[in-house]
User: Which sequence fits this backbone?
């Protein structure tokens, strides 16, 4: 039984803090996925000074967590514990495979 969790957040500190709490168990493996950056360029003033622009960027940090265990009950308890303690600004995708 393998559960694959993909965590995504724009705040690296909260994501790493949450992952260090999960690392304590032996059946968990954690991988860093590539970060995605989205850059947006806007004009500073709408009427004049077309050369003056402001740039903003959004960075998404991703981590992949795999939970492998032969005992179904232990794995389900661990996944439920993760689901209950996840912060609001972390999005989560869960995939299940045998």
Assistant:
């Amino acid at each position: 039984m393998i559960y694959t969790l993909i965590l995504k957040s724009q705040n690296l500190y909260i994501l790493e803090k949450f992952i260090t709490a999960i690392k304590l168990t032996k059946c968990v493996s954690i991988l860093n996925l590539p970060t995605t950056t989205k850059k947006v360029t806007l004009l500073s003033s709408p009427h004049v000074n077309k050369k003056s622009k402001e740039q903003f960027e959004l960075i998404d940090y991703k981590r992949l967590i795999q939970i492998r265990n032969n005992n179904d009950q232990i794995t389900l308890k661990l996944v439920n514990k993760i689901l209950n303690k996840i912060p609001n600004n972390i999005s989560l995708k869960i995939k299940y495979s045998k």
